[in-house]
Design brief:
332 residues; alpha/beta; 15% strand; ATP hydrolysis activity; ATP-binding; transit peptide; ATP binding
């Protein structure tokens, strides 16, 4: 995972509460320790990267992580900040006219004209479903397209619990299909009104609108191809040795394969080490975990993955030194 010099994307996900953030943060520290400039980004609605690194990473911007030699930056996606930026941009450009500019940049200028004096900024007062995922997709676009991020050879995603993650991974396909339908509809409308628009010299705006939609569609295709590229992208499933967690991990693995997302590793976190004492609780707990771990070999989805176990540590994994300690054990 550290030897390849090409840029690599790693996504860590699974059931809530299994330690995805600690695993993602320790992997990012591992990459940085081995000389890879790295970005770790949290895409979930409830962030804990700040807690994991024991450093304030809030604000929705890249923040340098202290205590590592190679560049390591962290980002917690902030939907509220993104919405405030849209509202600010709208007000800066003159209220609804500013919103029209935003819609026009998405190829929806003609539709904005038809909405007339409707207060479009009011739409920003309500956070739509999947806003976190949409912003995460926009960040992926930045990483892929912007020269500013060329120096980073490793991008690690600390994804949200399973449901959010599957929406994130399916969003590029959904948007691609939606944009395609919008383009077909726009062409039908354009052909029906071309004579009228040409009389008023308004034909060019339609072409510009179509071009913008096509460009947005191309960007979505880049993200979709990135998610499916086994040479540059890998999804790592994180779970714990309980029946419920492993069942969800199995369903997640099946869904990832259905979406053609490369998945090869299964991290089983918080495995209780064998105890030399007469602790009855420890003995019973370990037996329970071993029974759950036996499920992996019998599961048609999980059995094909490379299983990596991480012990239940006797200290809280918080801060770069602790993450490095965890990473040296987990990412050997």
């Amino acid at each position: 995972m550290v030897s390849d010099t090409r840029r690599k994307y790693y996504m860590l996900g699974g059931k809530g509460g299994v330690g995805k953030t600690s695993c993602a943060a320790s992997l990012a520290v591992k990459f940085a320790t081995h000389g890879h400039p790295c970005i770790v980004i949290s895409t979930g609605p409830a962030h804990s990267l700040s807690d994991s690194f024991d450093q304030d990473l809030t604000g929705g911007m890249l923040v340098p992580v202290q205590g590592v030699e190679s560049p390591l930056f962290a980002l917690e996606v902030n939907p509220e900040k993104a919405r405030d930026e849209l509202r600010s941009s709208s007000q800066k450009h003159g209220g609804s006219g500013g919103m029209k500019n935003i819609m026009d940049s998405l190829g929806l200028g003609m539709q904005a004209d038809q909405l007339g004096d409707l207060e479009l900024e009011e739409l920003l007062d309500t956070s739509p479903p999947d806003l976190d995922e949409a912003i995460a997709i926009s960040k992926v676009m930045e990483f892929v397209e912007s020269q500013e991020f060329n120096k980073f050879s490793r991008i690690v995603f600390d994804t949200a619990p399973t449901g959010h993650t599957l929406r994130l991974l399916s969003l590029p396909d959904f948007l691609d299909a939606s944009i395609g339908k919008m383009m077909k509809l726009e062409k039908k409308i354009a052909s029906a009104t071309s004579a009228i628009k040409s009389a008023f010299g308004a034909g060019e705006s339609e072409e510009n609108s179509s071009n913008k939609l096509e460009k947005l569609r191309e960007r979505m295709a880049k993200v979709r191809d990135l998610f499916h590229d086994s040479e540059t992208t890998e999804f790592v499933i994180v779970t714990i040795p309980t029946v419920m967690a492993l069942r969800e991990a199995s369903r997640l693995c099946a869904s990832l394969r259905k979406e053609n997302v490369p998945v090869r590793k299964l991290i089983v976190n918080q495995v209780l080490p064998e105890s030399a004492s007469n602790c009855k609780f420890c003995s019973m707990k370990r037996k329970d975990q071993m029974r759950a771990l036996d499920m992996i070999k019998k599961d048609s989805e999980l059995a094909t993955l490379t299983e990596v176990q991480s012990p239940l540590f006797d200290i809280e994994i918080r801060g770069v030194p602790a993450l490095k300690f965890m990473g040296d054990i987990l990412w050997r």
